[in-house]
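Possible regression after last week's pipeline update?

I re-ran a chain I had predicted before the update to compare outputs. Posting the input and the new output here so someone can diff against the archived version. Not blocking, just want to make sure nothing changed silently.
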Amino acid sequence: MSNDFFKMRGIVKQYQMGNEVQTILKGIDLDIEEGEFLSILGPSGSGKSFFTNHLVRQYWEQGTHILLVDTGNSYKGLCDLIHQKTGGDDGVYFTYKEDDPISFNPFFTQDYQYDIEKRDSIKTLILTLWKREDEPPRRSEEVALSNAVSLYIEKIKKNRKIKPNFNSFYEFVKKDYRKVLADKNVREKDFDVDGFLNVLEPYYKNGEYGYLLNSDKELDLLNKRFIVFELDNVKDNPILFPVTTLIIMETFINKMRRLQGVRKMILIEEA
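New output (post-update):
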């Protein structure tokens, strides 16, 4: 019995250049087994992106969940096509522009399901913004942050008028969680709430990166089947790149964990 996940036979693609016909793909055969990792290699202009556009569209047509990490806008056209074809229900494209900066809302879930992995991903994201790479958190700080995330989630699940995002989390820590720490006699040296708020203030409301974790698009990526993260304009940014990387990881891990029995694919362009 064949374990093939995907088959292609005799794929040919040509286009006209003046009086000449250029062949981009010539008799391509491909078998991919379920669970197999695949690398596509070739020099610039050899048709890698053209081929993978064709490949992932076939995957998508068969119901596969696809997450693409790209540099160079190789999949913008396909993403736009899928977005149009589905009436805006699918085909999500993340990129950074000066007049439309990249933004996420890692606190939002459509079904208000916050399992341990989701809570841990929020905690890891906040730690990344709070602590420098050479500044590991103390155990007391990790515990305090975990408690803050858990209590915040309890609050938004009970009161769904509160919009889940970084802004409301910041305000929760500033008011509600400060009282919790005082009632528990948590010492400042164990968790400096004012220092925590000061470091994270750039990500709050009108701060320099106030847009980053406060997207007003209530977008739960779990059920989106075609997602592209275009990294060209963020890959050298010390703030935007690690945050985007964590969002990518959390998105795909969430699909792996919660969409049992559903085909899933992650493709990293220019790996």
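Follow-up from reviewer: compared with the archived run. The helical segments are 48-61, 76-85, 116-130, 139-158, 166-183, 193-200, 240-258. Marking as no regression found.
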